[in-house]
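SAMPLE LOG
Freezer: B-3
Tube label: C17
Construct: single chain, 138 aa
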Amino acid sequence: MKGVLVASHGLMAKGMADSVTLFLGEDLPQFDYLCLLKTDSPEDFGARIKEKISELDSGDGVIVLVDLFGGTPFNQTLPFVSDKVDLIAGVNFPILLELLGTRSFMDNIDVQNLVGIGKDGLKDAKESMTSLNTDDDE
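STRUCTURE (predicted):
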């Protein structure tokens, strides 16, 4: 099973990890998070990422989900991207739930599919409601 690491600026990753337990329970193996704080240097954060990737990899690799493309969590993870380590920028709750909910019974995780799930999770409520009302009128 692939390990999963969520990394963010501030406490966002911690909040996502906490929220996921409402859906999937407290005991999530090979899952952790890292929060970049104002007092952290980029290099120290990179060392923590390297250590977490090593801890979470049981042989199947790790997927790292970060908050922002080009930000420190992304930049400090980028050197570790390989055949065993994937990196997705722009983490959102639908991606995290899908990944954690399905990884135990999937041999290969389709990273592009996860990105699509994240995009599909973004909705404009007004537009969605308008299209639902239009569909009802037909």
